[in-house]
Amino acid sequence: MTRHIRELNRMFPGIQISRTRGGHLVATVGTNRVFLAATPSDHRAIHNNAAMIRRVQRMNP
Questions:
Q1: Which of 20, 41, 44, 58 is deepest in the core (most CB within 10 A)?
Q2: Residue 61: what pLDDT?
Q3: How do residues 1-39 score in pLDDT, each as one tens digit?
């Protein structure tokens, strides 16, 4: 498990993060899915992914 996945699991304990066949990450938030890059090339990538997950969580209370 990469640091990226561990960090997101720690920040959002209620979501499930898995890999697609293509190697990307999928965060399952309720019934919605958020597709994430598996190898972020930006130091802000974890923060940007966390923001996307929070937006989806706000849409589905």
A1: 20
A2: 66
A3: 578 888 889 999 989 999 899 988 899 998 999 998 877
As a whole number of angstroms, the distance between CA 35 and CA 38 comes to 9
Phi and psi, residue 20, nearest 5° = -85, 170
**Cα 19 to Cα 11, 49, 58, 59, 61, distances in angstroms:** 18, 15, 24, 23, 25
SS (H, E, C) 6-40: HHHHHHCCCCEEEECCCCCEEEEECCEEEEECCCC
Residue ranges per structural domain of the chain: 3-59
